[in-house]
Hints:
Blueprint: E1 3-11, H1 13-16, H2 20-38, E2 42-48, E3 58-64, H3 67-78, H4 81-84, E4 88-97, H5 100-109
Antiparallel strand pairs: 1-3, 1-4, 2-3
Helix pairs in contact: 2-3
Amino acid sequence: MTYGIVLTYTVTPRWLALSREQRNAMRAQHLEPVFASYADRVTARFFDAEAFNGRVSDFAVLETEDLGAYYFLIEALRDTPVIAEGYLTFSDVFLGVEDGFHAYEQALTAGADPR
């Protein structure tokens, strides 16, 4: 099964107080290596939302077939200074199964008990 995850987050005033060069350096030093180390199991796309939403500033759309890899990616992110030192906070997480009803119907058709 392919899982889709929408991970919403907000950058804090502490992050915004950094210069763009400092932000880019922190992103390159701390965040990009984490995503790169899981890229073979978790894909990620990033979106700005602050112009359209007052609750969160950004969100990521992640896809994986390995929820364990997703979980470890989040734990690794939490260990970075970007999160541990309060530059970014996670908000809501939405998880879905891509076309999950198809898998369920196929299991029913095959005579398997999908439970």
